[in-house]
Design goal:
Largest sheet: 2 strands, parallel
Helix content: 40-55%
Distance between the termini: 21 Å
Shape: globular
Number of helices: 7
Strand order of the largest sheet: 1-2
Length: 142
């Protein structure tokens, strides 16, 4: 893995119409569309995978007005890991439409409610992997 040190997360976020705000200003009742309070997660995704990957993740998550309210660390991590683990998705012509068809808020709330003993982002990654049909058949080698 090559780490990108010079990623300007504010520039990438602006290009995607996302406002990066200080976590101390976060209030769940006043959260607005395209507001992100998890700069450390954004920074880490950009540092690990570069500006283009970060831009793609932000664009996929903000594709619909409802999903644009779901700029939570768990959502961003799950989408990032899905793309990194399955690079063939980038060539899928329906990728944006497929993401727009997912209710990220409902998915995140369901993953949190599972209380499965794994991180919410991990549960979301499994659900997204299944949604995109990216798992091997039972008994096949991965």
């Amino acid at each position: 893995m090559t780490l990108s040190k010079g990623v300007n997360i504010h520039k990438v976020a602006r290009e995607c119409g996302v406002s990066l705000l200080d976590w101390r200003l976060h209030s769940p009742t006043s959260r607005r569309s395209r507001q992100c309070f998890c700069k450390p997660t954004i920074r880490e995704i950009g540092r690990r995978h570069g500006e283009d990957h970060l831009r793609l993740v932000l664009m996929l998550v903000t594709g619909t007005p409802d999903n644009a309210k779901e700029l939570y660390a768990d959502v961003l991590k799950a989408v990032s890991r899905l793309i990194i683990s399955n690079p063939e998705l980038i060539r899928r012509p329906s990728l944006v439409d497929d993401f727009n068809a997912i209710n990220m808020g409902a998915l995140r709330r369901s993953a949190r409610a599972m209380k499965s003993g794994v991180a919410t982002s991990d549960a979301m990654l499994v659900a997204l992997t299944m949604r995109f049909g990216l798992w091997p058949e039972i008994g096949e080698a991965a």
